Amino acid sequence: MALISTDNLTVEQRLKAVSLELHRGELLGLIGANGAGKSTLLHAIAGLLPAAGDITIEGRAADSIPPHERARVVGIQPQAVSSAWSLTVHDIVALGRMPWGDEDETAIERAIERAGIVAFRDRNIDHLSGGERARVWLARVLAGEPEALLVDEPIASLDIHYQLAVMEVLKSYSREQHGVIVAIHDLSLAARFCDRLCLLDKGEMVAIGTPSEVLTEALLSTAYGVPVDIDLERNPPVVLPR
Amino acid sequence: MTRLIERYLTPLLLSALLLVASLSLGFGSTPVAVLEGLGGWLQGEPSEAALIIGEIRLPRTLLALIVGAALGLSGAALQGLLRNPLAEPGLVGASQGAALGAATVFYFGVFASLGTLATAVAGLIGAGAALLFMLLLAGSGRPALVIMAGLAISTVAGAALAVVLNFAPNPYAMQELVFWLMGSVSNRGLDSLIVLLPAFIIGSALILSQRRLLAALSLGELVAESMGQSVKKGSRIIVLGTACLVGSAVSVAGAIGFVGLLVPHMLRPFVGHRPERLLIPAALLGAILVCLADIAVRGMPLGRELKLGVLTSLIGAPFFVWLVWRERKRWL
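ok -> structure tokens follow
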């Protein structure tokens, strides 16, 4: 049984009849141009947007699951997050336990370690760099230990070292019988880390499958409007605009 | 040092509150033995001390404490809800709305069947309506928009208040209303507590029931919603609670500005900046500050009386200027 499946998921003017499945142990990459509907799809799956069509979470209709219970299964890290107050890193990560109504220190510490932010767990968020903050937001959602983890462009503001580190975290999280969907712009990293890819274009899902099935010259140049060079045989694989 | 205060913050504030309250009971133009007077008043003795403590100083002290607690708590709640350190009952239009509601009752006798409750109920409706319109106008918790929307609603409520004054049937109405708006806790009997106390308890309970939402809102509405919080419903409960607190406080004591702005800022470093931990300390410190300000007002030379609301504004307004200055430095 799929961890999450969507059937004809539609959000007015933004998403057209998307049907996909996310399985346990899988890292699914969501790719597509700006405005293709990646964030909309993630928000709809997390129940943050009213959407037509069906979402099924572990065989149950998502609408029938109470919000806090759904939040325990599906955790989302939205793209633009900021903290209104000068909270400590630890306190922010602890907020991730809210769906459970506890402050489980082992889960919090585990998330802090996973995200590689142990060194500044007691610092205030406004004293951190953009890249450090991005990892704090990731730790926040990891602390809830959701079955399905949805992350919206987690590596956009990171240097290459931490881009790899964050993708490794997502990959290893998926390998613990969780499902992970990551919206990502870097196609080379998508090819390198994701088990399957889903390509969105103007709100429609135009392809879903293994990286070699989705990352083709024809599909990408139509979706992005630029010709691309693709070399999936290389290690690591490379996908670049020409 | 900060850590130490953080741990003992509530007990510290509680003892300070008791100290200030007893100071307030003992302070005045006539020296009176506080405990004797209090005991005498409780037993119904007709002594001078009993009269002064029971009829004058006790109501005044209790009012100052409750009004201050209401303002401090509603300031902390509004700042948490709007994720905006500049939010304050007076700056988001709630105080003006409450004043408009209460003034309408004064001069046109609406809700006459409610008797003494009329001003409080009208103040509450006014504060609630103003907050609701402000939120509708702002459309989100974005800081700049909230302040602009608050300014717009305050201006509208101010204009409507001017209309009420303009057509007030009583020629002395204007002066009376202006003095009332300046804010004071003097010459109010214990019966105003009948209105203030229940509204305070209900309003505080509503706000405190949403502590988890306030914590979650630190990271924005989207994250709060995704963690299973009902942002819409919870926000309405907080707005309703704030309206209860501000509406009843303004209808009893007039406009006492800047307490709700100042108090959360003073406390934030001592609660790890956590909005949900700020609430109870903010109520306590609000009570302490308003009571202290009232003692200061009473200590001024007789003759021209400085109104309590004027004093808090004199202290609070420069602080507001400083806050804007600090915000400016963050952006330049």
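Residues 73 and 195 of chain A are 21 Å apart (CA to CA).
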